[in-house]
C-alpha cells in the first residue's frame, strides 16, 4: 500500500511539472499562492469526500491554471477546421447580471467542447460601449461618459474573469474607442457613396423646456420628459437614414439559405414583409416652379408606372409638417376628411411623367406607408379617386385572349409581360439611382441619427457651397471633442462645441460645419463580428482573407429580443460588405442560439410597488408583506433592480462555486427556455449531488487501483464480462447522444442528464469489474472528459487524480496533459456495427414478464421503448386496459419496468 502511494506521489510531482511547462514547481507556487488545504493537486493525497472546503480549494487551485492553459492555445493553426463562436457583446453597465452569466456560460462550454474536438476556435469578447446611459451618468453624477464607461469595462472584465470564462481576450474590441469607430465611419462613408445613406426630415421627441431631443427611453408612460417633466412634443428635424429597404428582397430571399435559424427566420420574414413593389423618386413643383425638393412614393405594381394618375400622401406626411417650402401650399389645399387635389406636381425621375399630389382623407394606407403612387390600371380604389378628382391617366395593362397580361402605352416596356416589365423597370430605376429597390410596404429605412454626444460622430461636413460632403478617408476618425460638463439641456452637446463644429470643407476648403448628430449604437454592433476576425488592423476594417477564413460565424448566441432589429441590421451590413467585394460570404451567421431569460420572483403590493425579499413573509401559505400582512401578487419576471428580483452573480458564485452555478444554468432548462431562478428546486441539489457522485466514483476507483492488486481483465468471469460489455455499450450510447446535443440542438441540460445516467451506472458496477475491466476505466475517463467543458474545475482535479493511478488499462488518453486538453471521446467503430435489434426485458411492478425486440437506435429512448412495449403482443396482453402510473428505462441493462395500478 505504501509503495502504491509513493508511486502516486511521484506521478503527482511529474504532472505538476508538465502542467507548468517546466521543472520549476516552486516557481509556479510563488506565482499562484498555495492557499489550498485538502486537494490532491496540492497535497499528493486524495480526499475521499467532496466537501464545501474541497470545492473551494479545487476552484482556487485550478482557476488560474485553466486560464493560463486557454491563453496558450494557438488561434492561427490553419490546419485545423475553424469554429467561430460568438456571443452578443454586452453594454458595459458596470455589473454583470445572471442573463450575462447564462449566455457566456453557454458559449464557454461550447467553445471548450469544440477545442476538444480539434477545432480552431475563437470565442471573442468586447464591449458595446456607446449609448445613452453613459451620457445620463454624465448628467446625473458629473462624470465624463468615457471615464464612466472605461471604469465599468474594467469592473465587468474582472467579473467575467472570476467566472473562469475562456474568451479570446487578445481580440477584445470596444466600440467607443477611435480605433474601432474610425471604421464605423469608414463604412458609413461607403454607404453614402453607394447612395445608401441620406438625410431627410423625420419626427423626434422634443423637450420644450430643456430644448433638447429625447430618446424614446427618456419619455415616460405619460409622454413626459424624464428630466424636466414637460409634455414631450413631436418635432421635425433633419435625420440621417440608412437605406435598408435597398436590400429587403435580397435579405428576404436569403432567409432560405439559413435552415439553422430556428424560430428566428419567421420573425425576420415578418419584419421585412412581402417584397412585391418598390419606391420611386419624384422631384416637386408648385405652380409650375421647380422647388428643388424631392419625395419618394411606393407602388406594388411598378411595371404599370406609365399609368400613374397621382401621388397620394397622408395628412401626417412630413411635407405638411416639417420645414418644407411646400408646406403652406399643401396646407392651404388641405380640407380634413376629404381627398384634396393640391397645386403641387410630382415629376417621376424615371419616366419624367408629371402628376398631381393628392392629400388623402384617410389617416393610413397599406403597411407603414405615408405616400403611394396612384395607378388606376391596377387599383380600383385609385380608379375611383382619379375619376372623382377628374385626373387623367392611361390604361397600361392589356389582357390577351390566353389570359396573358402585357404592357401597353409604356414606352420601351410596351409589349412586355407584367413580370418582364417589373424586372426591367426596377432594374432601370436602380441604375439611375431613382428608386427601384424591391421591398415591402411595411419596411422603413433605418433612422440612425441621435442628437447625443456619446456615439460615433457622423463623418459629414456641411458646406454652403458643396453641400453635405464626406470627410476624406485619410482624415478619419472624426473623434469626439472633450466636453467638460453635461447638462442635458439646449440640444446636442456636440452642437455646443464650436471649435469642433467649425471646420473647412474637404472639397473647396471654405468655411463649413461638422455634422453634430451621432449614430445609433446599433450601427456599431452591425459589423463588430467582422472586426473580431482582424481586431488590430490599422489600415482597414478587417483583412478580407482573414474575414473569409473565419466567417460566417458558426454559432451566434444571444437573446431572442434581438431577433429582428440587431440581426436585421447585422445581415444588412454583411450583404453590403459582400457587394463591396470586402467578403465572400453574404450571410454573417450560420447557426443561431437564442437563449431564454433568467427570471426572478417578484413580490408586488396591490398598489403595484415591488418589495425586496426581506420585506416579504414567506412562512404562511401565501406570501404577505412582513409589516402590513397585505397579501402579495407573486410573478416570475425578468430580473431587474426596480423589481427587486435580481440575483448578484458574485454572491451566488461565492456561495455555491463556479462549477455549481455553471451546471445549474446548463441543467435547469434547455438554452432557449426561460429559467425560473429558485435554488430550492431540484436542479441545484441535483447538480451538487452529481459532483459528489463523480468525486465518490473517482475515489472508489483510485482506492481500488491503489490497493496493490494489479488489474487483470482475464480474471473476469463471463457474467462480469457481460457487465463490462453493458458499460461499454452505455458509454458509447452516451458519447453519441452528448455529442449530438453539443453539435445540433445544444440541449446541454439533456447532455448533463445523459452524463448523470452514466455516472449512476458506473456507481453500480461490481468491485471486480471496476478493478479489472478496461471498459469501466474507459467509461469513467470518458465521463470526466465529457463533463469537463461544463464543470472545468472539478474535472481538472479529478483528472489529475486519475492520471496518477498506476497500471492503467487505457492507453488512448493523453495522461500528461489536463482534462481540457484531451480529445473528445469518439464512439467505438464496433458499437456502430451493433445488432439492429435489442432484446428488451419487460417488468411489471418489478416482476419479469418477458422480452420484446426493440430497434437498437431507440433502445436508449424512454418514450419510444415505452410505446414499443405497449404496441407489442406482450404489451397488448399484459398492459392493455391497465392504469400505468410510470415506466422506468435502464438502458445499461436493456430493461424497462412498468408501475401499474391494478
List keywords for this structure.
single chain; Rossmann fold; 5 domains; 902 residues; disordered N terminus; 21% strand; seven-stranded mixed sheet; four-stranded parallel sheet
Structure description:
Residues 725-850 form the Methionyl/Valyl/Leucyl/Isoleucyl-tRNA synthetase anticodon-binding domain. It catalyses: tRNA(Leu) + L-leucine + ATP = L-leucyl-tRNA(Leu) + AMP + diphosphate. This is leucine--tRNA ligase. Pfam families: Anticodon_1, tRNA-synt_1. One of its GO terms (biological process) is leucyl-tRNA aminoacylation. With 902 residues, the chain is an alpha+beta fold. The protein folds into five domains: 52-182 and 523-595, HUPs (Rossmann fold); 274-439, Isoleucyl-tRNA Synthetase, domain 2; 598-638, no CATH class; 674-832, Isoleucyl-tRNA Synthetase, Domain 1; 837-901, Roll (Ubiquitin-like (UB roll)). It has 29 helices and 35 strands. Strands 8, 9, 10, 11, 12, 13 and 16 form a seven-stranded mixed beta sheet that branches. A four-stranded parallel beta sheet has the order 2-1-24-25, covered by helices on one side. A hairpin with a 2-residue loop joins strand 8 (277-286) and strand 9 (289-299). The radius of gyration is 34 Å and the shape is elongated.
Q: Give the biggest beta sheet.
A: 7 strands, mixed
Principal-axes geometry comes out as: elongated
Second-tier CATH architecture of the largest domain = 3-Layer(aba) Sandwich
CATH class membership of the largest domain: Alpha Beta
Number of strands: 35
| Alpha-carbon Rg, integer | 34 Å
Give the CATH superfamily of the largest domain. HUPs
**Mean pLDDT figure:** 90
List the uncertain runs: 1-36
What is the structural class? alpha+beta
Instruction: Briefly note the CATH topology name of the largest domain.
Output: Rossmann fold
Number of helices: 29
